[in-house]
Amino acid sequence: MSNRLIGCRLELEGIELPEEMMNQTLEVLTTHESVRGFQKKPLPEGALKAILTAARSAPTSSNLQAYSIIIVTNEERKNRLAVLSGNQGFIKEAPVFLVFCADIYRLKYVTMRQGYQFAADTLEMFLLAAVDAALALQNALVAADSLGLVTVPVGSVRNDPNGMAEELGLPDGVFAIAGLSIGFEREGVRRGVKPRLPEQITVSHEEYSTKYLEEGLAEYDRVMIERRTYDGRRVSIAGEPEREGMEYGWCEHSARRCTRPEAIAASASLRENLRQILEQRGFSFQ
User: What is the pLDDT of residue 216?
Assistant: First the structure.
């Protein structure tokens, strides 16, 4: 197999790997693109089982398996989930929408079942469950991509945690971390593999380093501005006038996003109270 893969990150960044290292796994990983347009076409027989088996094979801390996956294929429910997730139309389009949840309900149940008192109400337990769910999602994404399907992770399932919990029947101790739309791509929706921050500023050797931070940020801004990545997607700041003549790249876009709590859609203001909502839903952050 050639190590010059069309449309992959290796080609995008000019990375040359030894021929003997290239394989289908690396090809799938380096060509992933989040696709937000789907055909009204069901998954091939056996595909969902393969994807779920891959998800369930992901690493899990201490084998606690503190996650759950909700499969949603009902059209009416997908429509409601799309509304709860910031009116994301592709959730309705995709034949399958998976919701990956941090789940300590099952662990609480098992602890009480065995005659003990659950005392793992800690920030560590929430992080453990969230990481377990994220790893399962990533495995599902890679498996789907390997089958010739397309995917897009959906963090906006956190926009309305209580609404999401009600719609999916989530008990206390179960929280929707992210969704994953899966299906066949609709023609004309691909935009190409998106550039990432330079390796020299996201990867350090032995110790954390900021040596190339400014150089790398400037380089990345140039790339994203040339690609016109943020055309029509500028983040406005209330009471802040537009800066005349300023080039709008990743740095400006990300900085504006960080001037307020994470909010992609109007309903995402609920994320400002996420800790309080999580505590109400059975998690603790001691």
Answer: 97
Which residues sit opposite 162 in a β-bridge? Answer: none
Distant-in-sequence, close-in-space partners of 263: CB < 8 Å, separation ≥ 6: 269, 271, 272
User: Residue 132's beta-bridge partner residues?
Assistant: none
Do 126 and 45 share a structural domain? yes
Residues 178, 133 contacting (CB under 8 angstroms)? yes
Q: What are the pLDDT digits (tens) for 158-174?
A: 999 999 999 999 999 99
Distance CA 165, CA 104 (A): 14
CA–CA separation, 213 vs 198, rounded Å?
Answer: 9
Classify 118 as helix, strand or coil.
coil
**What pTM did the predictor assign?**
0.91
- Alpha-carbon span 20 to 181, nearest angstrom: 34
Residues 70 and 174 in one domain: yes
Task: Classify residue 265: in a domain, yes or no.
Answer: no
